[in-house]
Amino acid sequence: MVRCGAIAFPLLLRLGTLTRCGGNRAKTLGKRLNVCRTSMKIVELNQVMLHFQEDILTNSLSKLHLKSLLRFTCVSKFWKTLIDEQYFSMKHLIHAKNDQNSQKFLVYQLLRPNEDIFSIYCCPLSSAPRVEDVQELCFPLNVEPWYCQVYCCCDGFAIISVNNVDINKRDILLLWNPSTRESIVLPSPKFSVDWFTCLGMSFDSACGDYKILKISQDKAPSEIFALKSGSWRIIDEHPRDRIKTVVGMHPLAFRHGAFHWVSFTRNSYFGVSSNISHEMYGEIPLPKEVLLYNVKIGNSVSDGMLCPYSNGYHQKKPTFYVWVMKDYGV
Amino acid sequence: MVKLKSNDDKEFEVEEAAVIQSEMIKNMIEDGCATSVIPLPNIDSKTLIKVIEYLNKHINMGKAAETGEEDDLKEFDEQFVNMGWEELFDVIMAANYLNIHELMELCCQSAADRLKNKSVRAVREMLKITNDLTEEEEQEIINDAPWAFEGPEIDDTVN
């Protein structure tokens, strides 16, 4: 059994920074000004690096791979402050997103089927990755990856669940940055995450925080989690969204500031969107062919465009259809 | 032709098509502020010569793809950044001041390539940075991610 999720590598978003920082712009700017002052002081004291201004250093360092960056936090106080800044993480993230070589698949595979032990590795996006490019990842928290699931990926983070043998075989949900090998245990939602659950994660720029939406194929209510608040909250349902046709454990598509999935009502499918900031719902008509070929249908995002897909049989042949929606009524 | 004057009072004539790769000068010309000589108080003549060399070579960058000169430009760029740290910083500062995005990216990429995979000691020595972290602080950083300080690719040389 192999499952995949795309993830951008290598990134520097440090979990500590995310949960600690008030992400609003004014605060970030304030911190940056402090850094500038620090930089001036160092220049005066040492009479070196006269020309390596902060923005130029940021530009150069943001092109480096994560391992070098983590090591360079040890160069001096100024370098540490600069690299640890949330602003720098964002700059590094933008650079990595535009760099094809930074994009990797996160793959998890059943390693020892009899014991349900998984292994996780990453490999390049190319269609024929070389064996030497496949890199096995250290599993977070030193737990045995028993019944592991990768639910979704966002900005280099992955949300995974593992069945922790040590804690009464209870599922724990981890927010994990495989690049920095950091992870935090997320609080359990009121209705547990299981095989019928889909998660989506994205950054809400309105409040400067990452949010995770959990929806379920069964009757469990939808819940949203904001990283800084640290707790799950049940949200109202869309009035017509009675039968979510999501495939459990598939990540929720995120586009135009909203999570997307597909719902079914009275012989027709329609797309549902849920805005990340104010949780308002929207409806998106889907191509009518979706219905014809349907066995499994859903939404994904490619090249910044929402792509509904259906996987089923057409004229007795197994067929996978993808519609690329350049524009739609939102 | 546009006349540029370095901070050591040397004047250089540059074709307008070349010089407008600098957003700053392009704006000055558009606003009609570049009628005589443009003084550049932050740039010395040695650095300005380098920058003009770059501007002249990249004058028809948009057409390079059509005329098959891409490899030639690539080779030029590789040769161009083959300079010491001091000189590289001067060019970066000039590119920053004149707002020449491509040149800035080229030089910052070169700085990144030089730092890539270097050991902490090598970076400090190359850039003459004094370590102001205490031994405890340094140890704490290493303990946070010991794997980042190990590996066959880490290069302790200062070249």
TrEMBL record, chain A:
Q: Name one Pfam family in it.
A: F-box
Q: Which residues, if any, are the signal sequence?
A: 1-26
The keyword Signal appears for this protein: yes
Report the InterPro entries cross-referenced here: F-box-assoc_dom_typ1 (IPR006527), F-box-assoc_interact_dom (IPR017451), F-box-like_dom_sf (IPR036047), F-box_dom (IPR001810), SCF_F-box_component (IPR050796)
Task: Pinpoint the F-box domain residues.
Answer: 54-88
* UniProt key word Kinase: no
Instruction: Tell me the ranges covered by the F-box associated beta-propeller type domain, including all copies.
Output: 145-327
* Domain of life from the UniProt record: Eukaryota
Keyword annotations of the record:
Signal
* Protein name according to UniProt: Uncharacterized protein
TrEMBL record, chain B:
Question: Which GO terms fall under molecular function for this chain's record?
Answer: cullin family protein binding
- This protein's pathway: Protein modification; protein ubiquitination
Under SMART domains, the record lists: Skp1
Q: Does the keyword NAD apply?
A: no
GO biological process, alphabetically ordered = jasmonic acid mediated signaling pathway; protein ubiquitination; SCF-dependent proteasomal ubiquitin-dependent protein catabolic process
- State the UniProt keywords alphabetically: Ubl conjugation pathway
Sections of the chain in a coiled coil: none
- Which domain of life does the protein's organism represent? Eukaryota
Q: Where is the SKP1 component dimerisation domain?
A: 102-148
Oligomeric form and interacting partners: Part of a SCF (SKP1-cullin-F-box) protein ligase complex.
Protein name, as recorded = SKP1-like protein
**Organism whose genome encodes this protein:** Capsicum annuum
